[in-house]
Amino acid sequence: MIMYNQRNWRDILSEKPKDMTRIEYEITLPKPSEDCMTTYRINRAKKNLRRFNDQYRNGKTEVYDERHIKDPATQMHHIFPASDYPAIADYLENLIALTPTQHYTYAHPNNNTQYIDRAYQYVCLVSKTGTIRDNLLQKNKEPIIYDFYLYQTVLNIGLGTEEFYEVQEMDLLKKEGKNMAKLDWGRGIGLHFKNNNEYYETLGFLTKRSRLVDIYTHDNGRSGAWGGQGKLETHVGTHILPRPLREAFEKSGDARLSVTDYVLNLRNHGFTIEQDFAGNRYTYHLFPESLDVVVKSIESEEYEEDFFRGYNW
Q1: 3-state helix, strand, coil in the chain (%, to 5)
Q2: Chunked in runs of 10, what are the mean pLDDT values of the chain (313 residues)?
Q3: CA–CA gap between residue 186 and residue 72 (Å, rounded)
Q4: Burial class (CB in 10 A: 0-12, 13-18, 19+), 51
């Protein structure tokens, strides 16, 4: 056995007792924290999204805003905070490319990264839904980087539910070139269509320049929990509305109808422009980018006649 009169310098730095072998000493040490590996995975995901966004989306923000459309999206923001939701912190489906102003003024007001603006969180979630849908459909001929199951996981964990695992991928995407419109939306009263014809007729009606029905997102979660809701609000008598809207408003007995999933879905039809008329950053009215963008989202010419019947209602 070899005996040492002086401690090895590596042992001194590691505080290993002189009479213990390195292997014996390592067994006594606490297991290394996974923090470093978690940080590595998060940074890698951010780097990959930044590279993809720069290369295939010209570095533009994923949250359409005319005020910042020319600003580079250099900030990869967590929709659901990494500190609160570590299980999905490195998911691309939970990251969104924003401009510095969007990140440090809207998502984190006053540059306070410990605070999340719940209304803007919902805006980001709506926008990310459209980005993921376009990528999975390969609308822009770009590599597929998202996964529908992981997207469901992000929604379930972030919103504290299991409901999104029940959503079929074809509810969001198309199959074999044919549009697969979802016909039942929301719980309770909800919004229900008998067929695709009614679905697109109503979409056309909501696209009208004269807004007879407002579409907006509203945050009820000032207490700190995510409480975003998507709502429709009518300003006219229900008798002049298309059947699905008329029956839904009549059953609700109110001029407002809470159908968050349907409002979220409208993002897939080009309703990506948000207007905060009250300036409180809690209520955002949604508008389509243009008539052409909405029409292109139909993807099947057989329903265009239904759409324009609603548009010219």
Answers
A1: 45, 10, 40
A2: 45 59 65 68 94 94 81 95 93 96 90 83 85 85 90 90 75 47 79 93 92 80 50 91 95 88 84 84 86 87 93 93
A3: 36
A4: exposed
- Residue 273: the pLDDT is 87
d(CA 93, CA 307): 31
> Look-up: residue for tokens 């052409």?
292
pLDDT the model gives residue 312: 94
- Running DSSP on this structure, what letter comes out for residue 97? E
At 95, list the tokens. 């990251």
Q: At 299, phi and psi to the nearest 5?
A: 70, -5
Q: For residues 34 and 38, give the distance between their C-alpha atoms in angstroms, rounded to a whole number.
A: 6
Q: What number of H helices and E strands is found in the chain?
A: 12, 9
Tokens of 115: 């605070």
> Which SS3 state, helix, strand or coil, does residue 106 take?
helix
Residues 6+ apart with CB under 8 A from 58: none
Structure confidence at residue 145 (pLDDT):
94
CB 193 within 8 A of CB 262: no
Find out whether 248 and 257 touch, Cβ atoms under 8 Å. Answer: yes
Question: Token pair for residue 57?
Answer: 């989306």
